[in-house]
Amino acid sequence: MSTTPSPLPDSRTDRLGSRGWALLLVLSGAIFLEGIDVSMMGVALPSIRAELGMSTSSLQWVVSAYVLAYGGFVLLGGRAADLLGRRRMFLLWLTVFLLFSGLGGLATEGWVLIVSRFVTGIAAAFMTPAGLSIITTTFPEGPRRTKALLVYAGIAAGGFSLGMVTGGLLTSIDWRWVFFAPVIMAAVLLAAAVRTVPRDAAPERTAGGFDVAGALSLTGGMLLLVYTVVMAPEVAAPSTALTLVAGLALLAVFVMVERRTATPLLRLGLLRSPTLVRANVGAMMLVGSFVGFQFVAVLYLQELRGWSETETGLALMVLGLDAILAPTLTPRLVARFGNGRVVVVGLVLAAVAYTLFLRLGADWSYAAMLPTFLTLTVAFALAYGPLTIAATDGVATEEQGLASGVLTTSFQFGSALGLAVVTAVLVGNSDGTAGLDDFRTALLVPLAAAVVGAVVTASGRRRAPSPDGPTTTEPHAVVDAL
User: Fold this and answer.
1) What is the pLDDT of residues 426-463, one digit of tens each?
2) Is pTM, for the whole model, over 0.85?
3) Which residue, among 306, 320, 312, has the nearest Cα to 366 in the 3D structure?
4) Closest to 288 (Cα-Cα) out of 219, 226, 360
5) What is the rounded (10 degree) CA torsion for 337, 341, 342, 346?
6) Where is 478: in which H helix or E strand?
7) Alpha carbon 238 to chain centroid distance?
8) pLDDT tens by residue, 243-261
9) d(Cα 277, Cα 271) in Å, to the nearest integer?
10) CA angle, 372 as apex, 367 and 373 as ends, to 5°?
11) What CA–CA distance (Å, rounded) separates 21 from 18?
């Protein structure tokens, strides 16, 4: 027996059919929900801090708790979908997502909000791989699956783009609607999913089980490392050293668990691939720098400039143009210049964008900010997709899911770490209220991350071997590879 549902029949290989579209829209709605939930939060943070009285260091945990839980449990989530059934995991964790998003909206204390975000991140970690695997097992390999995955990815990008605007509009009413709106959407998706998601066949029995120890040690280690960075400006050096050592110790435990368990979350041999390692470092630097920059930009616009939540959301909306550029411009550039070159150019453009924003002033017009936003959206469009390709290129078919999970973990941990470092810089250089010089100093963090990402990914460029030996007469003899 297998957990794979029967592929949806259709007489034309490129048609999804009415049943296929209904299923795809429900699953895409879930990833849209996950994207909009994350991006809405960034615009709402200043309002949350004002009402709940949270400090800058505690405020960043509203985002970090989610992404760390997501990144720490996504590998376990994929295995759970395989062993326990994709439909069951999707419906169960969509329900958990709904309940704890609602709890966040009802929170009257900062710690309640942070806990709700952590559990919501766990829910996303189980729900998302289940939904994606339903697509790849329901639509047969070929034009239909390709079309379904393109629709899925496009709607995911749209969720992130619309979230910043939607978050601004909802926060202008009340920040709690940033949590209640996903509850309504999740309820609609849950009702539709019960009717449209196909039932799994009984899962076959396999040796081993779940690597819970691996998931807990990985997540705990990442949490402690981020906590160390955030709290470093506020606590004594011995306390910082203690949490740092504890975090590294948990990661060492994770490595030992993965070496000894029969069903590891991560086969450590996979990390021997230089291409995969460079791609994941690049992914951490790209997303970490972007999330850190967004945090600084939102605080600058709302707390220093006094812009409203709606104005901030509309100002940052241009960053969502990557949803258009990524599927249209990037594939052509990759085909013309190679995957590696496009990644490096994207990260270099990100560094240029952050450099432009270092000139920010107390009375900057939107026109002065626009070059940074436009450059950054092009940078993200160029680097994000090709990094995803590089992280799975050359990986065996049976480990494609694992490689994708490692990349997701890198994206989420990079987000949390980038945000943590920016927060630590802001807290360490201000007396409670960040000023213009504090924001400029904090902007050096995403700039440094983008530079590191560009250097690491550029180090993988090599000359492609030719069947007839190397030649310098071919204009594209040099193939960029991460």
Assistant:
1) 887 666 667 889 999 999 999 999 999 999 999 876 54
2) no
3) 312
4) 226
5) -150
6) strand 478-479
7) 32
8) 999 999 999 999 999 998 8
9) 6
10) 85
11) 5
Q: Give the phi and the psi of residue 174 in degrees, each rounded to 5.
A: -170, 130
Which tens digits make up the pLDDT trace of 82-114? 778 889 999 999 999 999 999 999 999 999 999
**Closest C-alpha to 75, from 364, 322, 399, 427:** 399
The DSSP letter of residue 12 is S
Are 57 and 230 in contact, with CB atoms under 8 Å apart?
Answer: yes
Structure tokens that stand for 275 in this block: 């291409």
Rounded CA separation 78/310 (Å): 37
Alpha helices in 175-273 (DSSP H): 177-196, 212-231, 237-260
3-state SS class at 202:
coil
Per residue in 306-316, pLDDT (tens digit) is 998 889 888 98
Give me the pLDDT at residue 400, please.
Answer: 66
Specify the DSSP element, H or E, that contains 463.
Answer: strand 462-463
DSSP state of 166: H
Q: In the predicted model, what is the mean pLDDT of residues 412-433? A: 82
Dist CA 391 CA 408 (whole Å):
10
Beta strand 462-463 pairing with 478-479: antiparallel
76, amino acid identity = L
Tokens representing residue 379 in the block: 């940078």
How confident is the model at residue 272, as a pLDDT?
Answer: 84
